[in-house]
């Protein structure tokens, strides 16, 4: 783990870690999005070359860091030789022998500047305190998930939550399966928070679901560790029970949306969503509470025609809540070439 090694070197040479934050959320944001203060500015005794090497280890994008321990060791050895011979470490271009040990695609977005701007605009509208629905359509493998994951940085800064679920064509007609998966992920995130934060969340949930908490703990068993044992449910007929389930789940999800701290619910492969999931999305769109909720639904548009049930659901949602739309097309050959060039560490002209 070369990034963690960089953090270790940073503390070794400066006397403090790269970031000093009290809250876990703020610390995570720093490691995702902020560059630490240059090492030679924290400790003037650290040679500039050593500082550059440590900061290279701590680069935000993985492809900008050292790619191998061998490459790092070669540079450290070169520094050691210079210091032994001249008591000075001169500047040189790092990474001359840093050849990646295995093939890995760069972890960044190519050719999606317009789509990324639309994604961030939807997030900003959500921060204003209202539900926002975003549909992302495109063929399988076109990059829908990679694009949506670009929301991690701004979301972490706001202290909100990002959870995701994915429908499976062969999973059967399990009600709200992808949404239940997302809420299970949310419960696990909550369990990593402080006791004070957990108590606050417990109170918000209790106020939202009332006496229907067992519906939540039955659907998301791990949530009982947060909510505690729940009372028995009142017996009602099948249709009333279904409506109660959707209403309770909607209120439960809304309880995680606080001013300035949004919830992003990303549901993938909506073309395989079951009827209950589609109904729940309609309920979320019609919620009367102005909450910072961003629901992102991704699907393969080549599998959804005008008669598909998802098309009707999206029309109903749009009638209740504006839908932002992103249609991802195949990458322009220029960007495919750039991706290949950077993956193979070659000039774009050479791979054209």
In words, what does this structure look like?
The chain contains 17 helices and five strands. Helix 2 packs antiparallel against helix 8 (152-158). It has a five-stranded parallel sheet with strand order 2-3-4-1-5, with helices on both faces. It has 352 residues and is α/β, with parallel strands linked by helices. Helix 14 (275-286) links the parallel strand 3 and strand 4. The model has no long low-confidence stretch (mean pLDDT 90). The two termini are 33 Å apart.
Concise account of the structure shown:
The protein has 17 helices and 5 strands.
What is the percent of helical residues?
40-55%
| Classification by helices and strands | alpha/beta
- What is Rg? 25 Å
Order of helices and strands: HHHHHHEHHEHHHHHEHEHEHH
Output mean pLDDT. Answer: 90
The CA-CA distance between the termini, in Å, is 33 Å
Major sheet: arrangement of strands: 2-3-4-1-5
Provide the fold topology.
Elements: H1 2-14, H2 24-33, H3 39-42, H4 48-57, H5 69-86, H6 113-127, E1 132-137, H7 144-148, H8 152-158, E2 161-166, H9 177-190, H10 195-209, H11 213-219, H12 224-227, H13 238-254, E3 263-268, H14 275-286, E4 293-299, H15 309-320, E5 323-327, H16 333-344, H17 348-351
Parallel strand pairs: 1-4, 1-5, 2-3, 3-4
Helix pairs in contact: 1-4, 2-8, 13-14, 14-15
Tags for this entry?
352 residues; alpha/beta; five-stranded parallel beta sheet; 17 helices; 51% helix; 9% strand
């Amino acid at each position: 783990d070369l990034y963690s090694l960089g953090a270790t070197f940073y503390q070794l040479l400066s006397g403090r870690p790269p970031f000093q934050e009290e809250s876990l959320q703020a610390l995570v944001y720093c490691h995702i999005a902020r560059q630490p203060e240059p090492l030679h500015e924290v400790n003037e005794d650290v040679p500039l070359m050593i500082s550059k090497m440590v900061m290279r280890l701590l680069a935000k994008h993985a492809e900008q860091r050292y790619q191998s321990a061998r490459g790092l060791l070669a540079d450290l050895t070169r520094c050691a030789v210079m210091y032994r011979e001249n008591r000075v470490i001169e500047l040189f271009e790092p990474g001359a022998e840093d050849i990646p040990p295995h093939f890995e695609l760069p972890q960044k977005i190519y050719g999606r500047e317009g789509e990324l701007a639309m994604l961030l605009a939807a997030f900003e509208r959500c921060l204003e305190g209202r539900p926002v629905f975003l549909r992302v359509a495109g063929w399988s493998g076109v990059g829908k998930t990679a694009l949506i994951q670009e929301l991690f940085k701004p979301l972490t800064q706001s202290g909100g939550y990002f959870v995701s679920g994915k429908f499976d064509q062969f999973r059967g007609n399990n009600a709200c399966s992808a949404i239940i998966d997302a809420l299970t992920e949310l419960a696990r995130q909550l369990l990593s928070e402080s006791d004070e934060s957990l108590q606050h969340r417990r109170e918000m949930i209790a106020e939202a679901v009332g006496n229907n908490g067992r519906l939540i703990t039955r659907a998301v068993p791990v949530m009982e560790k947060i909510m505690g044992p729940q009372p028995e449910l009142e017996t009602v007929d099948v249709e009333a029970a279904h409506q109660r389930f959707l209403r309770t789940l909607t209120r439960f999800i809304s309880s995680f949306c606080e001013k300035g701290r949004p919830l992003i619910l990303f549901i993938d492969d909506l073309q395989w969503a079951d009827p209950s999931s589609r109904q729940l999305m309609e309920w979320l769109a019609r919620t009367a509470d102005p909450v910072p909720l961003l629901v992102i639904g991704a699907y393969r548009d080549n599998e959804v025609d005008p008669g598909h049930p998802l098309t009707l659901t999206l029309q109903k949602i749009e009638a209740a809540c504006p839908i932002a739309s992103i249609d991802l097309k195949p990458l322009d050959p220029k960007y495919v070439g750039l991706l290949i060039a950077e993956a193979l560490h070659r000039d774009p002209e050479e791979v054209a």
